[in-house]
Amino acid sequence: MSRIAFYPMPGNEARAKGIAQALSTRADVGLGACAVHHFPDGESLAQIQPPEPGAQAVLVCTLNQPDAKTVPLLMAAATLRDLGAASVGLVAPYLAYMRQDKRFLPGQAISARVYARWLSAHFDWLLTVDPHLHRIRALPQIYTLRSRVLRAAPRMAAWIAANVANPLIVGPDGESAQWAADVAGRAGAPMVVLEKTRLGDKDVRVTVPDLRRHAGRTPVLIDDIISSGRTLVAALERLREAATPPPVCVAVHGLFAGDALAAIREAGAARVACTDTVDHPVEAIDLTSDLAQGVLDMILPVAGHGAPPFPSIGQGAEP
Ligand code: R5P
After folding, report:
1. What is this structure's pTM?
2. 176 in contact with ligand 1, CB cutoff 6 A
3. Which of 47, 74, 162, 173 is at a distance of 20 to 30 A from 135, taking alpha carbons?
4. To test the ligand 1 pocket, which listed residue (135, 224, 237, 253) has its Cβ within 8 A of the most ligand atoms?
């Protein structure tokens, strides 16, 4: 097997293959098999194709719907180490549990910290895309492994430039402002940020400022995550009342829980696009080459590959 061995967890085969192909002319890469059997009693069994001695193993597993994925993933990581991998890295384009970053009510888990401890115990490094960093400002505050964060803003801004004439970037809440500002700056477009109050999982209120000075511009709602979709639905409803042109929705991670997409379309979204950090049914913004470069950057200190970087990547190392 090859020096960098990619192991896709179930459902990540195309993602791992794409990253490996993107690296094939620049590094010694290969794909290894990782199967997960589910027993009738609910336990699972990971089975890994053994890596070549000294190979750098890279598990590829995006972590939407994380509860079912996490136990097999940790089993696979521990097994790769048992089988002699020189290092075990994780490419998780979507990193779960980052939004529960404090104890909002007495007795609640601070899930982001707990999850960080689990992954840090099993992996040498982590590559991800725009984790929801809010009260936790950077991954090293909670992850003890080496981590690197890729920024999707350059690709999102390029998609907007190619697809939306005369855009007005709209952040639906304060937490989205960091992504909206980055995209607006790159797209050379004005930006407004709405005010959001979340009263429950599906009960979201949004207020919109006076948009008259942006009349005629197409609102492009930018968020990091679409989960229930209710943040965007509330924003779309207010924009409809403000009689803007039909808005476009662009997000990093399209989780689309339940009826989210139907509700977003029903509320008036003209188009919806998300990066391909998770599989989803809307227009996809491809981050494969960014992930491939990110893997090389994580592997480089160990394996010593000397290839030059891909052009126009959007990434920043954690401080
Ligand atoms: C939270 O602040 C995030 O930035 C997103 O706005 C939120 O996770 C979206 O969730 P939902 O789609 O359930 O409204």
Report:
1. 0.93
2. yes
3. 74
4. 224
